[in-house]
Design brief:
It is built from six helices and nine strands, in the order ααββββαββαααβββ. The protein is α+β, with helices and mostly antiparallel strands. Strands 1, 2, 3, 4, 5, 6, 7, 8 and 9 form a nine-stranded antiparallel β-sheet that branches. The protein is globular, with a radius of gyration of 20 Å. 22% of the residues are buried.
């Protein structure tokens, strides 16, 4: 496709505006407010987010994951610790998150450091997952090369047989990460690409709030 082919996707944003005086003083509380509005507005899977990580030498990678909780500390999701993102977040514990709610013409960017959640928290969430998802966490050597689909299906059946009479335990290589925010930006689409951008930057125990040019 050439450049002209993409012109058909241009969209004008005009639903609402955003000013410094509109936002709450706590960006996590502001996120929760926007998230609740996304839910009530019928945004499909509002907890879908992009997470970007980087290797120790700075090579970046990004993928879609699901937000599973917002705590006093930060934003929580779960994964295989030996996956590419898991290994990168352990060796270089910094990440960026991005939520895009197109129906509301909004996005939220989050930057911060990363910590593993407590094992008991990972265990509690793991037990809440559907049975097949628990088995899948054991069966999948995430990010590793497979010879074909049948190899993965065979691993799944072997795990299913292993736990057929037992409770499925939490794999040692699986658990949660918490992204502890240091920067949070709220973006509201506006006409003529003059979008509203309000950014929060952590300053010890408080937050500085600024408007950015679009």
């Amino acid at each position: 496709m050439n450049h002209e082919s993409f012109l058909q996707f241009r969209r004008e944003y005009s639903q609402r505006g955003l000013d410094v005086t509109d936002v709450l003083k706590d960006p996590v509380a502001q996120f929760k407010q926007w998230f609740d509005e996304a839910v009530t507005s019928g945004v499909p899977e509002p907890n879908v987010m992009t997470i970007a990580s980087a290797s120790r030498d700075g090579k970046p990678s990004a993928r879609i994951v699901l937000l599973k909780g917002v705590t006093e500390e930060g934003f929580v999701f779960f994964t295989n610790y030996e996956s590419r993102k898991g290994e990168e977040l352990i060796e270089n514990p910094q990440a960026a998150l991005l939520f895009f709610w197109g129906e509301l013409e909004r996005q939220v960017r989050i930057e911060g450091r990363v910590e593993k959640v407590l094992k008991r928290e990972s265990d509690a969430y793991f037990k809440s997952r559907p049975l097949e998802s628990q088995l899948g966490a054991w069966a999948s050597p995430q990010s590793r090369v497979l010879k074909d689909r049948s190899e993965l299906e065979e691993k799944f059946e072997n795990v299913k047989e292993r736990f057929k009479n037992d409770e499925i335990s939490l794999p040692e290589l699986w658990g949660g990460f918490c992204v502890i925010p240091e920067v949070m930006e709220f973006w509201q689409g506006r006409p003529n690409r003059l979008h509203d951008r309000i950014v929060f930057k952590k300053n010890r125990s408080s937050w500085d709030i600024e408007r950015l040019a679009p």
